Amino acid sequence: MARPRRPPPPPLETNDVRVAAAGAAAWAVALVVLLVIGLPEADRWWLWVCVVGIAIGLFGVLYIPRLQRTRAALIASHAGKHAAVDQTDAERPVADGTGDGGSAGTGALDGPVADDAGHRDAGHPESGHPESGHREASHGEAGPGGHAATNPDRRPG
Q: What is the pTM of this model?
């Protein structure tokens, strides 16, 4: 019998600014060494390689904090939006054609359809996305592969 798999470890937290600064410092050391030892005229392009390495490292030192702030704000706003959407879905009455809420038994929904796990189906015919071109077979109609739809939770609308 196989052992159960352990969950993956959490992502490592790294100091990306320190890594970029170390790279810039390494290129600066290389530039100083090349200036001290002197290079023949044909190999002077190595000096420019070091200068570009320093510039890219300094750009990283300045840009990485901004990138991290932007990502943190995006993640926070994304989490807030999903919490609001989940709250809205939990409060919405079920419109399944049984007369217990929704559009007077028509089966019409006013937003994307969510399955039992809360996943939203943007390509569903009742999701309000007519450009998707997706149409799910109702009971009695042949679906993909010629088989009739067998989802007992879906009632014909």
A: 0.47
